[in-house]
Design goal:
The chain is 32% helix and 30% strand. It has 6 helices and 7 strands. The protein has a 7-stranded mixed beta sheet, with helices on both faces. Helix 5 links the parallel strand 4 and strand 5. The protein is globular. The termini are far apart. 26% of the residues are buried. The model has no long low-confidence stretch (mean pLDDT 93).
Length: 168
């Protein structure tokens, strides 16, 4: 298996059905259908990730099969979470979105490779990276902790949200 990591561009957007991949992953990982409140970026990849200069979207492709097998995105922080002792903002803080790896490709360092590309991109644009995951997300928290992200707050919300960050 040879996995190639690409930064999204217009050609790749036309070549792969990224929207379907993402919606399938959301359904599989979170048992959730498309919800505009949470998934608007999936329907508007160009507006969220191609046009803004400080945002990007990474694809992992099995080059032998020409198949999309993973995604990871970064964009300026645009949430309003009230996290103790944190003052995240869209100028200094990046947010990770849509890190997914197709289940049959997991445990092959694909997520790590995509994340390294994201972090390299962020070094010139941001001071810190924020993300959140859920307690029950398969492999989520152990992965982020292994990548030197630290827990800044655990929520007691319906999703079991855990907020993490990494200072660049």
């Amino acid at each position: 298996m040879e996995i190639c990591i690409y930064e999204l561009n217009e050609n790749l957007l036309a070549k792969y059905d990224i929207e379907k991949f993402l919606l399938d992953m959301v359904k599989l990982c979170y048992n959730m259908d498309y919800t505009p409140e949470y998934h608007q970026d999936i329907k508007n990849l160009d507006e969220y990730y191609l046009k803004p200069a400080n945002n990007t979207f990474i694809l992992a492709v099995d080059s032998e099969k020409e198949e999309l097998v993973g995604t990871c995105a970064i964009r300026a922080y645009d949430r309003d979470f009230k996290i103790k002792d944190r003052n995240y903002n869209d100028k200094e803080t990046a947010s990770i979105y849509r890190l997914f790896v197709e289940p049959t490709y997991r445990h092959n360092k694909i997520a790590t490779k995509m994340l390294k590309k994201i972090e390299e991109f962020c070094e010139n644009n941001y001071k810190e990276i924020y993300l959140h995951t859920q307690k029950d997300s398969y492999g989520g928290l152990p992965f982020w902790l292994s990548q030197e992200y630290i827990i800044v707050e655990e929520s007691n919300d319906e999703f079991g949200t855990i907020h993490l960050e990494k200072i660049l």
